[in-house]
Design goal:
This protein is α/β, with parallel strands linked by helices. It is built from seven helices and eleven strands. The radius of gyration is 22 Å and the shape is globular. The termini are far apart.
Length: 258
């Protein structure tokens, strides 16, 4: 009887700690990949360059298919449509010598597109609250030869509904009213767009904004704010495919001053 009870107790204990062991193992693998990524991955032979919408963002390395890098964000595939409406608008509307503000630097693709169009006398200021994305943005600017005119700042403009769990490091919050003046502003900041548009004192010639209805910045509200500020909506393109955009209320609006 005691033997049976001991077996039952051991079985119950294993059932209780089993999932934790699995979770700990998965977390350990993820941590190992992250620790291995920066110091060692760059020493592997390069397989090919990775380009997002005509802008180089990194390299694919031999060994990427073996080590589970996908637990750590890295560029792994070609993507000719990444932020296509945003980059198209920046390429068409940025003038030589413009000052462009990018809120939500991400991979740095839109920052590089703007810097390329603005030329050597132009300036791009990119903000991101994620320490990792700040590194990505700076690296992409370097890959594309525009690091001298892309100023990447580790600051959180207004707020973001998706910063929980992201390494923000020493990032400070910047009130939208303290944003510098600019000619063009591009926003992709996961729900902070409407607050920034309401509170900013800058009057850019062009505003390019991704709406995020599922994060509290719906397209209808964003459109109304832009019109109240004296902008005309030039275009509205879906983020991703039309079904995704419709289900998540995610669009790219391009607006110019009347």
């Amino acid at each position: 009887m005691n033997l049976c009870l001991g077996y039952v107790r051991r079985d119950v204990t294993l059932r209780r700690i089993g999932p934790k062991l699995t979770d700990d193992f998965g977390a350990g693998i993820s941590l190992l990949c992250q620790q291995f990524h920066r110091p060692l991955r760059a020493r592997l032979p390069k397989k090919h360059e990775v380009w997002y919408n005509g802008i180089m963002v990194g390299y694919r390395y031999y060994g990427d298919d073996i080590v589970p890098w996908r637990t750590h964000p890295t560029p792994t595939d070609e993507d000719f449509t990444y932020k296509e409406p945003n980059t198209r608008a920046l390429r068409e509307l940025t003038r030589t010598g413009d000052t462009v503000i990018v809120i939500g630097g991400g991979w740095g693709v839109t920052s590089v597109a703007a810097a390329t169009q603005a030329g050597p006398h132009g300036t791009v200021i990119a903000y991101d609250g994620s320490l990792e994305r700040v590194r990505y943005c700076r690296r992409t600017a370097g890959f594309n030869g525009v690091a001298d005119r892309v100023d990447v700042r580790h600051e959180i403009v207004a707020h973001s509904n998706r910063l929980n769990g992201i390494n923000t490091g020493s990032a400070e919050r910047l009130p939208p009213s303290e944003l510098p003046s600019c000619d063009i502003m591009e926003l992709d900041c996961e729900g902070a767009e409407t607050d920034i548009l309401r509170e900013m004192e800058s009057n850019p010639r062009v505003v390019i904004v991704e709406t995020h209805g599922f994060h509290g910045a719906p397209t209808a509200d964003t459109t109304a704010i832009l019109r109240d500020c004296g902008y005309d909506i030039m275009s509205r393109d879906p983020v991703g495919d039309s079904k995704y955009a419709r289900n998540n209320d995610a669009y790219v609006l391009v607006a110019t001053r009347t």
